[in-house]
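User: Design a sequence. Structure:
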C-alpha cells in the first residue's frame, strides 16, 4: 500500500475513487458530515470542490492506495487567520471497510501528524462522533479529549449525536508555519 500527498490535479484525477471511499464510509455509518444514502455524483462533486483548497495550500490531502484503489484518506485543514496559523484541523480520516483493522487509520494519522510538524504546526484539533471506533484510535494515539458537545451533528441516519473534541500538541511555542 502506498500513501501520497495529493496535489490538485491528482485529487481531480482520483475524484471517482475518493468518492467511492466516501460513500462506503458514510454507508457504513461514519458521521463525517453526510447523510445516507450519499449519492455518488454528490460525493464526486464534494471531492472536486476540495481541489481549490489543495491548490491554495488551505488543505493537504493524503490518499492510501493499493494499486489504483483508494483505501484511505486523511486531510489537514490549515487555519487562515494570522493568530491561528500554528494550528490545523484533522478532517475526513476515512478507511474503507475492506481495509479496517489493519493499522491503516493509525498510519494515516501518523502521516498527517508528521506533515503537520514539518509544516511548523504545533497544535492539531478534530471532532469525532462520541463512542465511535475513531475515538479509540485518537485515545490510543495520544490525543487529548477536550470535551463533548451534545446533539452536535446528525449521524448518516439523521439522528443527532454528541461529538467529542480532541487536540494534540505537537511542539512547544508558537511560530510561523511553513507550508
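Assistant: Done.
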Amino acid at each position: 500500500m502506498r500513501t501520497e500527498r495529493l496535489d490538485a490535479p491528482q485529487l481531480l484525477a482520483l475524484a471517482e475513487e475518493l468518492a467511492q471511499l466516501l460513500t462506503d464510509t458514510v454507508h457504513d455509518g461514519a458521521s463525517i458530515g453526510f447523510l445516507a444514502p450519499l449519492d455518488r455524483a454528490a460525493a464526486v462533486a464534494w471531492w472536486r470542490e476540495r481541489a481549490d483548497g489543495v491548490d491554495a495550500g488551505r488543505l493537504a490531502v493524503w490518499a492510501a492506495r493499493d494499486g489504483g484503489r483508494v483505501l484511505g484518506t486523511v486531510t489537514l485543514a490549515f487555519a487562515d487567520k494570522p493568530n491561528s496559523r500554528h494550528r490545523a484541523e484533522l478532517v475526513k480520516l476515512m478507511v474503507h471497510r475492506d481495509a479496517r483493522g489493519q493499522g491503516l487509520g493509525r498510519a494515516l494519522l501518523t502521516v498527517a501528524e508528521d506533515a503537520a510538524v514539518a509544516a511548523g504546526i504545533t497544535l492539531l484539533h478534530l471532532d469525532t462522533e462520541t463512542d465511535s471506533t475513531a475515538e479509540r484510535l485518537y485515545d490510543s494515539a495520544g490525543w487529548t479529549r477536550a470535551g463533548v458537545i451534545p446533539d452536535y451533528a446528525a449521524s448518516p441516519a439523521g439522528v443527532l449525536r454528541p461529538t467529542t473534541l480532541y487536540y494534540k500538541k505537537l511542539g512547544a511555542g508558537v511560530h510561523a508555519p511553513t507550508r
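The first helix runs from residue 8 to 13. Residues 2-169 form a domain with the Aminopeptidase fold (CATH 3.40.630.30).
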